């Protein structure tokens, strides 16, 4: 629980600065520092357990299905990093309070910083690999915010983007690697992954998993060849650089290497890749650090170099190397954070970080000078400072390894060379800034910074000296649990200042002397370096990014042409491609079911359907003709239904056909009567081909289906329709009873569509032709008398028929749908024959209300069954003896059907009557919004 | 008979797909309507082709499968709603833009805002 609190505290703390935004900078800083301090105190209470060999842990199920649990642990390694994160974090917060100017948005700064701190703590304490990855990506995002904090500077924006692209991209590779590992191990819990280490190393996917994980670690830790983002991230405020780029974020990659060393390490691949990458990075960083004139640039390359050193040690993988790596992580964090803060102080007080302008600051900033000398000496590996001890160990390990056979000697030589360069740039950092004549190029008179800005540096410098002088006092206790965790063979930590005269000492001496020599001869080296044309990584990166963007842009423009025709064709083509392999699996086209003989009537009917369908497509330029042909197809379809024992369908189809053709003719009034010939021959050929293919596939599928035996669940409906539903028309009983819920949904859809149409028609000003296509004006008699008379006579008849169809629906073909459509058709006839005004005068009823009342009746009929303790839409029926009529069945289903009936009338007339009004002066107005 | 039925459904589908691939809204609506016929016939035929066995208890000795019929009845009505909606949409677009072209040929979505 305490452990979870430590990790979550900074996340909670991230919101506090935002809440306190109005309360001033001091309270924001104090709040952030207190949160960190509390977390640090909590960590201290748990640290005792860890140091005594226990592993405090926390477990909470999160998404167990994908192997993700909120599972934390605090072992030796976690403790080392968590202490660094919180301890240095606290110093950074104090420092940042004085560093940030009043113009900076400190609430945003501290919120991002706390977010970052929490994410880092999550990485180091995660006991679940996916959780670790999650926090890993969170650090990428929060560091993006921090690097780009001064978002008005284009360098900051670019640096932040580059860091995000590289570390975020590496994070994705890491995820892939983790998924591979988890798949092999069967779990993402760290304990179980470590237990399965041998299995993982022996697996055929070991190398891909290793490479992916290393890609993640190397991008994060700025290892060669991904080092280029780190110098550009120096556009961040200095506290951010001091925190992210010395102690924490770049160490996350190192942490990952250490964390997974027991799982992935110890193999030949690990050793070769990790050691050589580390070595290359170390030399590369050290060499370029020497040439940087920007203080932070020098420190950035120096950080790259030191990270390379640690990576190399982890690659070597002996117990001694592991210890040396962990020790150097600690030492590097202390002196490098201090050095960054000093660079920030100098920048703050002089206004520049350019070493070509800085010189002779010793008179003005003596205290800062002492601190700089101490921390630089630690960086250079001067005896009596902490850096010396870990470098000495590193020399020892590089000298003792025999991993490259006869060529092993080149490792210690190159390491010594790297150390020389490191000494040279450390001397440069101190000498160029604090000595080297008078400060002539400065515009301001420098002075010491406020005391509290120096305090964090003093603490760090004191640690450098303390550890350097008395290493055995607390280092072994602190590091032993981590070493026990990682070292392949048991190792008891022993650090001595003096080992006697031996090779590592010789290497140290060589490094110091050689470094001083290089510094003295630096002018030669500078002119040597100038002859190379250094291509800026930023430009290369920008070039890659812009060419990828341009490529995607071109691709999008090719795909997204705005042509719906083309999208549709592509979609259909894809359908064909997906269906064909499946169809090819069907071995026989014709199934075993007995087929019906063809009779002449059916044959003629089929020919009519086919011909009119072709006609509809072929004459689509003449829209009215095409529409007429379509109506023939629709009528023929209803005949098909009646032929194959589906009277209900036939009736529905017939009425729907009438209503929808009327609607389309009405719509055609507002549309161009002809389609201009627009399609090219090629497009027509393509579409015919595509259509032919799809038609062929559908036909084949249908034939294969028709000739196969049927097994259906419908026996239940046939048996229970009468005794259970009280009706003999099984189709209708299914609609209003068995599957009544479907029908309720359906009439709701109908009502919604009608409402949508109603809205679409609001404020519509359609194009109104004053004459037909050939230029003839409309006939002056709008409503012929003959039609009027017949229509009026037909209305009561039609209503009676629909009432009859409605009532008999439960037992014979009919029902609410059909009855509703018949009523609608009769009403539409009135509109057509007599005009909107005439109908409105006599029947002024709101169709929206009708449709909603219909849905309501159906819904409440369903709900009604609850009051009788039955399920939704359970129907009930009984028989009544009516005089004259005789025995009559009454069922709640008929109430439901009434709802259907009313909805269908309401929706249909809402669509058609509203649309019909478009042709008159009574246009619907916008009602509300 | 089965082959004839399948050919008819296939032809209806082909013609409607061709119409749906046109560049103007009215033929597309006609195509959608015709496609709904084809789909309804297809769905209906999952109960197989059966003559003189209407699913009304007592009307015949044997009954055809009533379930596809119930589904298709629903589909016809929903299909009507869809046809109506799409045709009104087409009219609205014509009224707003003055054209019944479905392809987006307006030049305003240039490269700049991607």
TrEMBL record, chain A:
Q: Where is the MrpA C-terminal/MbhE domain?
A: 683-770
List residues of the Na+/H+ antiporter MnhB subunit-related protein domain. 787-909
**Keyword line:** Antiport, Cell membrane, Ion transport, Membrane, Transmembrane, Transmembrane helix, Transport
Q: How does it sit in the membrane?
A: Multi-pass membrane protein
InterPro entries with a match to the protein in the record: CPA3_Na-H_Antiporter_A (IPR050616), MnhB (IPR007182), MrpA_C/MbhD (IPR025383), MrpA_C/MbhE (IPR046806), ND/Mrp_TM (IPR001750), Proton_antipo_N (IPR001516)
- According to the entry, every stretch annotated as the NADH-Ubiquinone oxidoreductase (complex I) chain 5 N-terminal domain falls at 65-110
Q: Does the keyword Transcription apply?
A: no
Q: Where in the cell is it found?
A: Cell membrane; Membrane
What are the residue boundaries of the MrpA C-terminal/MbhD domain, all occurrences included? 609-673
Task: Report the transmembrane regions from the record.
Answer: 6-23, 35-59, 79-100, 107-124, 130-150, 162-185, 205-230, 242-264, 270-290, 297-316, 322-346, 367-389, 409-430, 451-475, 495-520, 564-581, 601-619, 626-644, 650-672, 684-706, 747-764, 785-806, 812-833, 845-870, 890-915
- Domain NADH:quinone oxidoreductase/Mrp antiporter transmembrane, which positions? 126-404
Task: Tell me yes or no: is rRNA-binding among this UniProt entry's keywords.
Answer: no
**Cited NCBIfam families:** PRK12648.1
The name on file for this protein is Monovalent cation/H+ antiporter subunit A
User: Which species?
Assistant: Pseudidiomarina fusca
Automatic annotation (TrEMBL), chain B:
Q: Which domain of life is it from?
A: Bacteria
| Compartment(s) where it occurs, according to its Swiss-Prot or TrEMBL record | Cell membrane
- What does the entry list under GO cellular component? plasma membrane
- Transmembrane portions of the chain: 6-21, 28-51, 71-91
Q: Which Pfam families match?
A: Oxidored_q2 (PF00420)
User: Which keywords, in A-to-Z order, does the entry hold?
Assistant: Cell membrane, Membrane, Transmembrane, Transmembrane helix
| Membrane topology, as annotated | Multi-pass membrane protein
List the InterPro entries: CPA3_antiporter_subunitC, NUOK/Mnh_C1-like
The family this protein is said to belong to? Belongs to the CPA3 antiporters (TC 2.A.63) subunit C family.
Protein name listed in UniProt: Multisubunit potassium/proton antiporter PhaC subunit
